[in-house]
């Protein structure tokens, strides 16, 4: 994957969050193991994961808005028909699970 292909939601994460994700994956998603690694309680790890999920969702929504905005600008610039733009946006939202 080239650097420019890295999604914005990943780039928006701090180093600590990326490391948490790495440890989470290496430990097969076991929050119990992550709690041992960080020497904290299970609910603390669950809270950290929930906060990280919200952060990722917010950044993903921002990417969705940027894409839709770009498509609308193509219509305004008369480079794309309104009907085609609607089809692209609908297809994008279905693919992303936002429909």
Number of strands: 0
How many helical elements? Answer: 5
Helix/strand order, N-terminal first: HHHHH
Shape: elongated
Q: Roughly how many Å is the radius of gyration?
A: 18 Å
Biggest sheet layout: none
Mean pLDDT across all residues, rounded? 87
Low-confidence stretches: none
Percent strand equals: under 5%
First-residue to last-residue Cα separation = 28 Å
Helix percent band = over 70%
The number of domains is 1
Class inferred from helices and paired strands: mainly alpha
Concise structural overview:
The protein is mainly α and 99 residues long. It is 75% helix and 0% strand. α3 (31-38) crosses α4 and α4 (42-76) runs antiparallel to α5 (82-96).
Which features does this protein show?
mainly alpha, single chain, 75% helix, 5 helices, 99 residues
